[in-house]
Amino acid sequence: MTMEKPSYLYDLDDRPPFLYAMVYGLQWAFIAFPIVIITTTMAEAVLNLDTSASIRFTQMTFLTTGFFTFVQTLWGHRYPVIEGPSAALLLTLILLAPYGLPAIQGGTIIGGVLLIFIVFTKQLTRLIRLFTPNVVGVILMLIAFGLLMPLLKFLTGMNDVHPNGDPVTMMISFALVLLIATLSYHLKGFWKSISILIGMIVGSIAFLLLGHFNWENLASASWVSVSVHRVGSPYGLYWPAAIAFACSYFAVIVNSLGSLQGIAAITDQERLPEAISKGIFINGISGIICGLFGVVGTLCYSLSPGVILANRVASRYALTYCGVILILAAFLPKLAALLALIPMPVVGSALCVAMGGQIGAAISIIASKTITPRDYIVVGLPVLMGTLAGLFPGGLFSSMPSLIQVFMGNSLIVGIVAVLLLEHVLCRDQ
Question: DSSP assignment, residue 89?
Fold first, then answer.
């Protein structure tokens, strides 16, 4: 028994009309934008960048995110997946910030070279065989459950003014989640494909009426900026940083493998082997380029399956247009400020619907074969362990070596390692 492939308004290689494609790309950009902003804000804080350096850092992050999304969808893995700053690499950057940006740049470049070496030595072929339906299903659920803490902050409106959240914001967010899900189910054709965008517009209007919009950043943003010079000093070689980033790039491989396996499960499995090689090769190129410019390296984001299942548009060209919009945002601060106006609770509501659909897809993949009592442990335990890892207190591993902090602080990595061990070693099906 195999999982039945979902039907889409536009399939993987379909080209939507230009205006439709731009709307779909904008919908993806609204979802991706807050993730990029959060990444750049955290990195700029630990690197103690001045105002001009922070502007360049943000611009280069948007530029690399948009550029590699564009490249991957057309010539890389050719799946509808967003490229963006890696959480594992961001964590490594934070841990190594005391050693300075040149050491971080050198480590990022070495990590990128390592990925390219692994692709050329054909070691990825062996890894693909490890991704059984149990492993793929667990990864999809881990992605959704790993976002619980960020989603909680988004949906409740936690900030400096409301450290415990705002009950009104929470109720509006839950209502918006139900609205988007209802629209996704009942609407047809083009309107169904932009159900998330419609819900985000309705939610934004609701928060606008409550006075939760900050128009100052939009008003003060310039129209055009081309200040994209390299951030920081020339890169240097610092072996502890190189080793830490080498291990972190192993996490990038695992994350990318999981993301591509997840999207292939609901679109096209046949192109997966070639997609993995090309996609991770471009992740390596990204590491080198991002290292040269002093920003966080990119990888394949894993939230795409849930979004696609909600809006029923699996065209990779929708992500190509998203890449173009993000590139434009790097040079048009006014556009970037407009995208940033979308309230975090609205983004959280859209992600909540997408992740709900992703959990359903994970269950369907696992159930595509005969389930045995062994599968209860092989699937359930890694999901629980990975989810718990995402809820660990921030300082739990602060006294441990940086390499351990990188891995144990990543819920996806903890869960993936657990399911691989249980599926192929500890509880191997004889």
Answer: H
Q: What six digits make up the tokens of 142?
A: 């881990």
Residue 384's pLDDT is what?
92
Over range 12-21, report the average pLDDT. Answer: 93
Contact assessment for residue 73 and residue 83, using Cβ atoms and an 8 Å cutoff:
no
Report, as an integer, the average pLDDT of 51-74: 87
Close Cβ partners of 17 (under 8 Å, ≥ 6 residues apart)? none
Amino acid identity, residue 137?
G
Reported as a single tens digit per residue, the pLDDT across 169-211 is: 899 999 999 998 898 888 887 787 788 888 888 888 888 888 7
The answer to whether residue 49 scores a pLDDT higher than 90 is no
Tell me which DSSP letter residue 299 carries.
E
DSSP secondary structure code for residue 97 in this structure: G
Residue 144 phi/psi, 5-degree rounding, is: -65, -50
- Average pLDDT of the chain is 82
Helix (H, G, I), strand (E, B) or coil at 61: helix
Other CB atoms closer than 10 Å to residue 217's CB: what's the count? 13
Whether the CB-CB separation of 383 and 141 falls below 8 Å is answered with: yes
Predicted TM-score (pTM) of this structure: 0.74
The rounded distance, in Å, linking the Cα atoms of 318 and 34 is 19
User: pLDDT digits over 301-357, tens only?
Assistant: 877 887 888 788 999 999 999 999 999 888 887 776 666 677 878 878 887 887 888
Residue 234's Cβ-count burial label (10 Å; 0-12, 13-18, 19+) is exposed
**398, containing H or E segment:** none
For residue 313, the 8-state DSSP code is: B
Q: How does residue 77 score in pLDDT terms, banded at 50, 70 and 90?
A: very high
Residue 115 CB partners (closer than 8 Å, separation 6+):
249, 252, 253, 280, 281, 283, 284, 287
Q: Centre a 10 Å sphere on the Cβ of residue 12 and count the other Cβ atoms it contains.
A: 19
Instruction: Provide the CA 112 distance to its chain's centre, in angstroms.
Output: 18
Task: Please name the residue ranges forming H helices in 75-194.
Answer: 87-96, 101-120, 124-128, 133-146, 148-156, 167-186, 189-193
CA proximity to 240, closest of 110, 80, 145, 423:
110
CA distance 333 to 330: 7
Question: Among 391, 429, 428, 384, which Cα is nearest to 410's?
Answer: 391
Distance in angstroms (rounded) separating the CA atoms of residues 120 and 118: 6
